[in-house]
Amino acid sequence: MKFAVLDFETTGNQSADEIIQVGLAIIEEDQSISRVYGSYVNPGIPIPPFISNLTGITNSDVENAPSLEEMMMELVPMLDDVVLVGHNVSFDFNFLQNALDRCGYLPYSGRILDTIDFLKICFPSLTTYQLGQVSTQFGIVHDRPHQADSDALATAHVLLKCLDELIGLPLITLQRLSELFAEEDSDLAWYFDGLCREKEKEPAQDLESHNFYRQLALAVEDWSDISTPRNDADDNPLKSMDFPQFLAEIEERLRAIMPQYEARESQSMMFGEVMNALENDKHLLIEAGTGTGKSLGYLIPAIYQSVKRESKVMVSTHTINLQEQLRERDIPLLTQVVPFLFKAAIFKGRQHYLCLRKFEHKINKRDFVNPKEDVILAAQMIVWLAQTETGDDEELNLGGRGGDFWETVSSDSDSCLGRACPWFRKCYYHRAKHEAGIADVVITNHSKLFTDVKAGHQLLPAYEHLVIDEAHHLEEVAGKHLGLHMKYFTVVHTLTRLYKDNRNGQFPALINQLRSSSDEKASDWAIVIDKLCGELVDVKEHWDRLNDMLFALLPERSDAAPGDTGQFVLRLQPTKKPKDWDVLVAIENQIYVSLGEVIRKSEKMLNDIKENLDDFSSDSLITDISGLIKDLSNEREDLHMFMALSDIGNVYWMEANGHFRSKSLQMYAVPVDVSKLLKEIFFDKKKSIILTSATLSVEKSFQYMIENLGLQESSDNGRLMTVQLPSPFRYRDQALLVIPRDFPSVKGSIGDALFVETLVKSLADTAIVTQGRMLVLFTSYRMLRQVYEPLRNALSSSDITILGQGVDSGSRSKLIRRFQDSSASVLLGTSSFWEGIDIPGEALTCLAIVRLPFQPPNHPLVEAKSELLKQQKKNPFMKLSVPQAVIRFKQGFGRLVRTASDRGIVIVYDTRVIESYYGKHFLYSLPGPKMEHMPTNQMVPRISEWLHEGDKS
């Protein structure tokens, strides 16, 4: 099998565009690269500037290059009897066919393979499939990205790496892949069939490397074989060791493996404060800025407490990112330095774990909605099963529609067979649960913490001590989970998974199984199912109509961008229901009654089938259907509760965006004040709760958090300690905060022409001095979009790239990666960029804050909280808006200095920080940077001077 790896550079993406460069790498049967061919091509038209910027190919490069016909005379003979390969091959293939046709050759009719498919299948956990980044991760030299010969050679090396990986897979995995593709009339099917035959010729394979079960190769043994970290019969390893001794031993071991390790004052203080709270059953609010090392600051005391007292400590984070960081960085380090065996387990929400029973059923029955994409996703997972020890979806790069696929194979309590499932001892969720049960420290997330509360504490192991990291999010997460949040697709997904059409859905699948059953009742059940399907179609029609009518009530917000979630928002008030609300309630009532009937009949029929049929594949299907019926039942109750608008303690609202209109509708019912609930659920019940974050205080006071989280009583009776740790950084030397005092102000979320023009000029001038490396934070998408194009034009003659959230495609993490990878770029971001992103070192030199991050005062939740404060004779602006904005502002500021050697500038373009009576709250809350204000025209010289001072020092 000989491969020809092809790459074209062209004047654009359309079929009418011209080829400007070709690269071809030939891989021989012995997997050696025998030839790399490259040539410029004269396109006969000028090369667009953006293509020259991307590829580095200019008009002068192609001026004397061969014509298309001359190049094709050299290329065509090399394509004889080869398998054509490309990275996103359809692009190159279309240009090839077009060129063959134009130059009078027959079309290419050989086999075609795509390295992107291979990467997805062979390396399911890769975070990106972009050629440059994949080359870097694999250590492949790719010196001229976007030049055809360099791209072709890099792609050839990527292909070889994939083929190598495939050869190393267990035979059973390759056989499953071959079966999976067999029904696809594709070149991948041909390739895997050949690969399998080759592998089958080899002598007996290594059977020790994997656990083989039900025709799948797994990387893990049964979870029931996992034992406790220490032997129960042994003495407690901390029996005669106090905490200072324990800490001294850990620090000694840290120095042995990290010679540069030195104890930090703030971290040492944190060890003591956390330990004190845990030992004396106190609650603790502890603000620990960047660089404190707060993860170890609470984990080390937590391990000591749990092992010494034999009582589990629960740790909760807000983001899965931080959970992963603890798993990948902090826990492995502690495993090396803690002087005895201990266990820290990660336990996430159930939907993050793969259900092997559902997955097996899906691939055996080929239950695929989008066959082309789903087959690749299934292939990815078959390979992943031979690698993963957790079955956690965070390890997978599922891309595009992968989320929908995952939803159909993820674990959930309603369709779990428990011990009756043939996969029970291999189950990833039960493994995680078992590990949490025997662990000393369990790391979960806020979301799971509240799901556990709602499930009557059945999900997490019992605990008395809790550490809440990223605690400034606790109130918001509590509201979401202790309230209600429902989407249009929440109901649609459940309905269509039961019945989409006569061929798709769990009900039609059950009818098919019943047809092949010999049971005399089978035809009666099939009739019942047919009727149920008809009723589900009616429910779907009513649900669509209800959502259309609800969407029609929503006014558009002026400050949000088109397509932004929450672009359309409406608060619903029990005392002021919209006109004709009773018409909507009547439709909801119809849905309520119809679903009640569907649920009753389904449950009766399913119980009947269970008692009479004895067949595992039906069992599996019936379990899934029962789970979906339970989901429908919960959704029915939630909708009923929402439409009743009866609880005055809740704030009710709806949100949608303009792109998907009623299909993007979301319904919320959230408690206005969660402080009482938090007090009852956590602070009254648990012995000790430690809340930590880099942003808990406002102007050195914790009062805002104390009131909002329900800690006032604990504070009054001496059960609450508060600590603000000193920063380990020298902020006066490391950060300069500049305020242009004559900068134009702005009303609302859209800047006028003068504001935008002044802002663009100032950003462009600053970006040139800082050589890009700049993060600009906006509070609204509209303003970001107002600035994006003019700023790009202003910097077009420099080599500085502009990246805009929501303008340039890609998720937040992809944009951050692109920002870090490019030597000079300016990244424009809104809300989600204000926190949780870590860009240490040179990549970020300047942070620009365009406006103070106040929440829109007309957001239903802000509005309802403000009303409550007014009733209590308090000032909502000073009690709610300012503290919230200050905490966000501190989060934004915290993006700049991430290590002791970082140095940078913060520009605040909002003059309210120096002009208004509340501005000082923002500035006094910061950890002491050098602050200066000046006229706008003096700013760039001052920044330049300050950066050069840093170079000298």
TrEMBL record:
The keyword Nucleotide-binding applies. The keyword Amino-acid biosynthesis does not apply. One of its GO terms (biological process) is nucleobase-containing compound metabolic process. It comes from the Bacteria. It is an enzyme of class 3 (hydrolase). It catalyses: ATP + H2O = ADP + phosphate + H(+). Its cofactor is [4Fe-4S] cluster. CDD domains: DEDDh (cd06127). Keywords: ATP-binding, Exonuclease, Helicase, Hydrolase, Nuclease, Nucleotide-binding. A motif (DEAH box) lies at residues 469-472. Its EC number is 3.1.-.-. Residues 253-526 form the Helicase ATP-binding domain. GO terms for molecular function: 3'-5' exonuclease activity; 5'-3' DNA helicase activity; ATP binding; ATP hydrolysis activity; nucleic acid binding. ATP binds at residues 288-295. It holds the Pfam family DEAD. Residues 762-942 form the Helicase C-terminal domain. 3'-5' exonuclease. Belongs to the helicase family. DinG subfamily. Type 2 sub-subfamily. This is 3'-5' exonuclease DinG. The gene is dinG.
